[in-house]
Amino acid sequence: MTADFGPLLQAVPGAAAHQSYPAGTLYLVATPIGNLADITVRALQVLQMVDAVACEDTRHTQAMLRAYGLARPQPQLLALHQHNEETAAQGVVARLRQGERIAYVSDAGTPAVSDPGARLVQAVREAGLRVMPLPGASSVLTALCASGADTTQLSNGVAGLEGGWVFAGFLPGKGGERAQALQALQAERRTVVLLEAPHRIAALCRELAVLGTRPVTLARELTKQFETIVTLPADEADAWIGGAPERARGEFVVVVHALPAESRNDAALPEPALRALRLLLAELPTRAAVRLAAELTGASRNALYAQALAWKQEGTGAEDAT
């Protein structure tokens, strides 16, 4: 079944009649992340009226435009991607200086958010030209709102920063940088949103096991036919992703939920639990020490893990931690 966007296109002039679209402006247009019906009326208006569309992949963008009845001659599609962004941006700036209106779209979602576009925006602004963003689809916000993750909890104790969430994008691919990123993720108390590709999602799920029972939401194929959103303890993510071949397919957004409130307060741990944790950390890796301390004392595994990380960040040895 093919969608008919004709009625929506007919509604464009009236719906956006009072919006001004100045010449010599770069328009950042958010596009659907999967479902073509998620385009905005304002986006359609701009894609109709601009002189050219700069895009991450001209073939992909032309197919999207054709679906809306807005196909363009090939010369009006300008390739601007991660490999040529700096030089292509100068070409866009030159055309803007001539008074053209140019839209920029990435392959899906909001440009410049883990996608090309940031250097283009910098070049346009440095040239003294205007940038106008058109909000729309975002895989990050789509997954975050469906996860139920807490975005109001206190942050890492930094004065003046309360609540919120952290967008980390793609973690480094391998080596020491990835290890450091995972260590930072363990220490972060706020909700964290990650992106991951299908060929690396299984590895990420294995690595998330260090978070213990801290909830994570795995969201794949958002807005598409096989959309899947599941929330489970971090140490069960590996088993879930390996439970069926199709679960590892598609693009992923991973939401690591905020550390539970009871895990943030050192006073929540009684002295016997702290003593057991100190002794075990002196002999065992952190994860094993936390697991045994929880089994022996009945204390919250999340709270024990948070305390172990706090001692590690403070540089306090297990033998003299208090």
Q: Quick recap of the structure?
A:
This protein is α/β, with parallel strands linked by helices and 322 residues long. Helix content is 38%, strand content 15%. Helix 1 (6-15) packs across helix 2 (41-49) and helix 10 (271-281) runs antiparallel to helix 11.
Approximate shape: elongated
Instruction: Work out the number of β strands.
Output: 10
Largest sheet data:
5 strands, parallel
How would you write the strand order of the largest sheet?
3-2-4-1-5
Helix segment count?
12
Describe this structure in words.
The protein has 322 residues and is an alpha/beta fold. The protein has twelve helices and ten strands. It has helices spanning 6-15, 41-49, 58-67, 85-97, 118-126, 139-147, 175-187, 201-207, 237-241, 271-281, 286-297, 301-314; strands at 25-29, 52-55, 77-79, 102-105, 130-134, 165-169, 191-196, 215-220, 228-233, 252-256. Helix 7 links the parallel strand 6 and strand 7 (191-196). Helix 4 (85-97) crosses helix 5 (118-126), helix 10 runs antiparallel to helix 11 and helix 11 crosses helix 12.
